[in-house]
Amino acid sequence: MAKLMTKTACLLLASVLLCGVKVPLARAQNDSFEENQIRQLQEKYRQSVDTLDQKLIDEIWSHDQPVSFIHPLGTDEGLDAIKADVYGKTMGMFSKRELLFESSAIHVSGDSAWSELTWTFHAMWRDSGEPVTTRGRETQIFLKESGVWHFVHVHYSGLATAIVKKGV
After folding, report:
1. How would DSSP label each residue in 31-95?
2. Residue-level pLDDT at 161
3. Domain that holds residue 120
4. What is the pLDDT at residue 160?
5. What percent of the chain clears pLDDT 90, i.e. is strictly above it?
6. Which of 9, 11, 97, 104 is 20 to 30 A from residue 54's alpha carbon, by CA?
């Protein structure tokens, strides 16, 4: 009887340990899958900036939720405003655009996620043909709608600068 109890206790302990290992492993694998989907979405976003492809812009942004985009020239609320200001006016100032992502951290929490990234943007001014390069950072917020990730918010700004005076 004691031998049977010991064997049962060992099996129970092994089951508990295995369950404890499988749950985090399954979650890590799922998060990795979700992160890969978001990276694919970010690649489409990068392409949408480079090409100004309206079909691609429509594909990546949510049509079910309020969307917004904060940038150095202002704040756009709604997809029509984002298309007109970010893609139309701002990106339209350039005849060529190349957005490069340099670092990205993605955080998934259920059907919502966000990323923090830095980028370099190479472009050619439409009016003068002169090249321009800028660097910046973004926070991007995503929602999973009907199994598909979409952008709901982007906030971009320049890179952090060194403090020039105390308190600044």
Report:
1. HHHHHHHHHHHHHHHHHHHHH--HHHHHHHB-SSS--EEEETTEEEESHHHHIIIIIIIIHHTEE
2. 82
3. 2-158
4. 86
5. 73
6. 104
Read off the CATH number of the domain in which 93 is found: 3.10.450.50
Residue written as token pair 């952008």: 151
pLDDT at 30: 61
Distances (CA, A) of 19 to 15, 25, 26: 6, 10, 10
List, in sequence order, every residue forming a beta bridge with 100; answer none if it has no partner: 120
Count up the domains in the chain and report the number: 1
13 CB neighbour count, 10 Å cutoff: 10
Q: Examine residue 168 and state whether it is found in any structural domain, yes or no.
A: no
User: What region, left, alpha or beta, does residue 163 occupy, with left being phi > 0 and alpha being psi -120 to 50 degrees?
Assistant: beta
Low-confidence ranges of the chain (pLDDT < 50): 1-2, 4-27
